[in-house]
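Let us begin with a simple case.
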Amino acid sequence: MNLSLVQRFGTPKPVIAMLHFPGLPGRPRHNRELGRSHLVDVVGRDLETLQGAGVDGVLFCNENDIPYQLVVGPEIPAAMAAVIGELRASVRVPFGVNILWDAKSSIAVARATGATFVREVLTGVYESDLGMIAPAIGDLAGYRTAIGADDVAFFDNISPEFSSALGTRGIADRAQSAAFLGVDAILISGPAAGVPFAMSDLRTAKDAVPDMPVFANTGVSADRLEEIFAVADGVIVGTSLKIDGDTWSRVDPARAERLMDTARAIRSRSS
């Protein structure tokens, strides 16, 4: 593992775009009448829009499964794996998996579908609106090896949404610890999906682990991209690419194209 971002995504400073599933089986927002075909249609449509805009990677996520769970039932990874499997031939870019907030299930789906990374909270302990988040990276790394998924990169969210870290260790200490423990990228988030992070947190993390990829994970937009790319090694973006900037809407082709045009222009100036 430890592939560079260029090796993994084909470019420095990659833009990874979110593919938000509609509500999955067993969750309050799931539409039983429309069923699995609705999941495939919605995710497939956004996949084609994002790839048409030229994103460097995509991240499949059960964003609509509100209220989120720390441990999901088997129906969630099963449904996600089935849909990703049906769309797999259409995926032309590297992709990841994020099941909120169940890292073990994300790793399992990544192994089953051929994903290149998972985005999860993998280190630290956090009090959150969902309960205590205590991921136990040693167990997760052992599970990854046990199922033959050592090529699945760990993208570690060290400032997770809806939560705060327990204890007195700040961003720098958490970033250094995560790097020492073997994660492949550090993610810096704001307080919720689509909400901007603090640039001071991004700079602190990058200064603490200069040789580790550090990504901006929430609140990324075309207008902020130059400022973000001056520090970050890549971005994960969802809400700002949606119609009217609404997290729950479909991807807006014009917004996606504007973001990628901006990203390409910034990268060309720095190359």
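The second case is a distinct protein. As before, the sequence precedes its structure tokens.
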Amino acid sequence: MDKTEERILSVIDRNRDAIIAFGRDIYTHAELGYKEFRTAKKFADFLKGLHLDVQEHLAITGVKGYLRGKQGGVNLALIGELDALRIPEHPFVNPETQAAHSCGHNAQLTGVAGAALALADPEVAASLGGNVTFFAVPAEEYGEIEFKNQLQKEGKIRYGGGKCELIRIGAFDDIDLAVVHHSDQAGIQVGSGTSNGFVSKVIRYIGREAHAAGEPEKGVNALNAASLGLSALAFQRETFRDEDAVRVHPILTRGGNLVNVVPAEAIIETLVRAKSTEAILDADRKTDRAFRAGAAAVGAGIEITTLPGYLPRLPEPANPLVLEAAREAAPGKEVREADPGLHSGGSSDVGDLQHILPVLNFNTGGVAGAPHSKDYHITDEDEAYLVTAKIFALSAYKLLKDGAAAARKIAAEYQPKYTKETYVRFMDGMIRHEKREIGE
């Protein structure tokens, strides 16, 4: 470990209380995707306090802070996610938003903020052979699909995922490579396996109101149409190949107004996930077919709105410099290398970013409980926040020292799956709205 690395660790340790206070504040003021106004402002104000150039309101709430190295050139992004999940039962739920950080985004964002403190130190900044962008991104958790569809109708976004939208608007055009993080109950790990991609859907059944007991024959029951559509979807499951890791998991968000009125509207939200683009498209067709069948059976109308979700995550072996940074940041703790062959049924818009530019991943612990549940919580603030900040900062320094030789090599050798233009064309091709009237 050289003197600059020692200084990075010293700066973070000296600011332990401030970093943990930042993390606690984010943790207890969770916000949902594309609504993270308080969280974004707190992050932006923190960066402004370090005298960094800050750009705000990217894809509604995204924030970029720029630390410009003396040699310029290559630009490395350290990325933290702003949003949380709607979990009203969580003990640290934000009562104003019903959101809770049950996936560790609070630790990501705090880690990026802590890394900014260290890297903006004049002696450290002078050693960087490139630029660092501290990037807070919105809406990684793909929930509230109706709300996101409305934002699309209003022209405020085109895609539901924050990184996807940021790619589209050009906010990643100046980024050459990125480092990302996630919390993990298993502790510190570098690299990652694969995960599913998906498309999102809102299915709206349109029926006709009538007295549910006196004249039900005059109505068209939208809830019955939805129930039949869900049953038809269930019968599709045996047609999904095990190796494609298909997951279709709908929720019913509306099913009528009063018990004595035939439901005139029923709404289903679902994600259609799979391991490959081909499998996603196959499951997408079968899902639409099943929901159409529910409408046809009772003569209901149907609207199916499909938006692109996320691309499958690509395998990433542990980067040696990030691995070295993790071991220096957490001496005495086990640091594992991820198995790139392991697959997760979940999804992340990190996969979309990987299709455009190189992304280096690491995990830290300090959390317990099932992710995306009321039981998920912080158990060790030092690991969740400080170790995360140290790995972010040390990784950035190692990649950007010596004229950013390591960062330049990674960026030059990376073979992206898409350019921004071909990515946007693919994503736009997934947007569609189908409508059939009652009785069709």
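The mean pLDDT is 95. The chain is about 40% helix and 20% strand.
Keep these points in mind for the review questions at the end of the chapter.
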